[in-house]
Structures are given as structure tokens and as C-alpha cells.
Specification:
Layout lengths: L21 H8 L3 H15 L4 E11 L28 H13 L4 E6 L6 H16 L3 E5 L5 H10 L3 E3 L18 H13 L3 E3 L2 E3 L5 H12 L7 E6 L18 H12 L4 E4 L8 H10 L3 E3 L10 H12 L3 E2 L15
Parallel strand pairs: 1-2, 1-9, 1-10, 2-3, 3-4, 4-5, 6-7, 7-8, 8-9
Helix pairs in contact: 1-7, 2-8, 3-4, 4-5, 7-8, 8-9
The structure holds iron/sulfur cluster.
The site of iron/sulfur cluster has 8 residues, from loops.
Length: about 350
Amino acid sequence: MNMTPPAPSAQDFLTLRHDWSTDEVLALWEMPFADLMALAHAVHVALWPANAVQQCTLLSIKTGGCPEDCRYCSQSARYDTGLERQTLLSLDDVLAGAREARDQGATRYCMGAAWRNPKGRQFEQVLDMVRGVKALGMETCVTLGMLDDAQTEALREAGLDYYNHNIDTSAAFYGEVITTRSFDDRLQTLERVREAGIHVCSGGILGLGESRLDRVEMFRTLANLAEHPSSVPVNLLVRIPGTPMGNLPPLEPLELPRAIAVARLTMPRSWVRLSAGREAMSDELQAWCYFAGANSIFFGPRLLTTDNPEAHRDAALLARLGMRTMAPDEGLPAADRSAD
Ligand code: SF4
């Protein structure tokens, strides 16, 4: 007798797992599109506030001149992209930006520095920034590159909530994207951060020329970490002229909601953040991503200037979709996020 296995139900995905096989994740990715969307949406609304999205703000606190060679990045010192370098911002500038972001509804303030790893006096300045933003009542996140044990501990003592460190892609494809550090370096920093009790924010980028299997392996790696990242940013490559990846062909658009759905199904209690590349996405594609389980976004990159068309577009789209932004104390999954 030919027994067809039962179709997966939302209930099957509510318990956290860390033992995903490649075949299992690939099978989810390759479900009929409508079935995958419906399944991921059911899991999403079972655990998270429906029709609501977290708004985060990202500030570059030190821009350009990075010694790493990430082939997608305008901030690498190796590529001529015309990017204007900026030394580390002052504490006053960072706190002014944080206050403005908070007043516009942001609940988390993410500060990024283009470093291989933080050093000396500059690291002390970042600790002051973390303390200052925390005192404003916002969640704090930094991305500073690789950390050692002492730096990780110092960040924890300063009150850091999240550390962002993306794995970018699969282990197999990593060498096509970055050669100045290894995939294992990345995983070691993530483990250090987790062991210090800081929430991990880690995701990757789609559209780097990777295969679908690489995408599957990237999400499988994240889902099989000892703890799921608290936040999973899903980025679409921004093809920047002057970088080695500036001329890559665009990603097939429906890979993006499929990726969001797979993140939601394999890491059901993690924030899934639709991150870089949104300005090139249609409203309809973003709507599918929200439906599939994306529940966090960054404001547009020009939030802190007077003219911010991206933020206006976000607000208009959320209104058209009947969605709202989450309050600072809202959004924890209905069940304990750490429950296994
Ligand atoms: S480490 Fe970060 S800032 Fe430096 S090149 Fe890579 S992505 Fe860009």
C-alpha cells in the first residue's frame, strides 16, 4: 500500500529543535509556495503577536576602512566604492541619535562598527555608548567583529542585550564571500557571546551567488546552534558598485519569503528580521515576508536625517497591511522563548 506521509501541521514546529537535517530543511524550502506560507504563518501567529512588527534602528558608529574582505561590503578598505570613511562617533552624537530613534518608535538601538575586532580606547568608548543607550530605556545591540573573552564579559557588564554577528552564508560557500576569517571563527564568537549570557543576533545574506542548498545549510546551522539566535536578520544583497559582488544577478524574489518561512519554522521563537535590501523589494514581496513570519525591521538608513522616505514608505505599507509597530515591552513570544 502506498502511504503518503501526513502534511506537517503548525503543532509540529512549536517545540524547539536543534537537530535539523539538510533533507528536512530542504523539504520545507521546496514545499508548494502557498503551503509553505500557510504553515509558517500558522506557527507565527501561534507564538507571536499577529500583524505587529518590531522596529529597530541601526547606526553606523564607525564607517569604512575595514581590514576584512567581505566581498559584498562597501566598508572594506579593499574596494573602491566611494564610501566616505567616518571615525568613531562621539558619545553625544550616538545618544542624540538614540533619543531621536526612540521618539520615532524604535525599541532597539543597534550600533555597528567596521572593525575586524575592537581594540583599546575605542572599545572603552563603545562600552560608554552601551551604558548610555541602555539608560534611555532602549534595548542595546552592537556589532563590532570578533570578540575575545574579556571583551565579551565587559560588554555584558555594560548591560549589552544583543550582539550581532552574522554567519552570512553556508560553511561550504563561506570562502567565496570572505577569506580573511573563517566560518569557525564566526561560530566561536557566537558561542562566546552566548556563554556570557548576551542574546545572539545572527543571520545571513541571500543573493551572494549561493545555491539554494547553501541557503538551506545557513539556516540549518543557525537552527542547530546550542540555542537559537534571539534575532535572525535575513538580508538581501545590496549590489554595491565597486564591490566584487556589485554585478551579481538579482535573487529570484520568491526565495526571500521562502527563506523567512524556513527561519520561522526552524527557529519559531526567534525574531526574524527583514533587514538589508528592503528598499529594492516591492511592497508585495515585503507583504509576503511579513505573512511568512518576519516580525522585525530596521528603519530606513536615513532615519536620522530630516528627509527619510524609507521610514514614510514603511509606515504607509504597514498601514495598508493593517499592521502596527510593537511597543518596547511587547513581542515576547506567548510561551517562554527559552523553553525547549
Ligand atoms: S567585517 Fe563588516 S564592515 Fe568589515 S568588510 Fe566585513 S561586513 Fe564590511
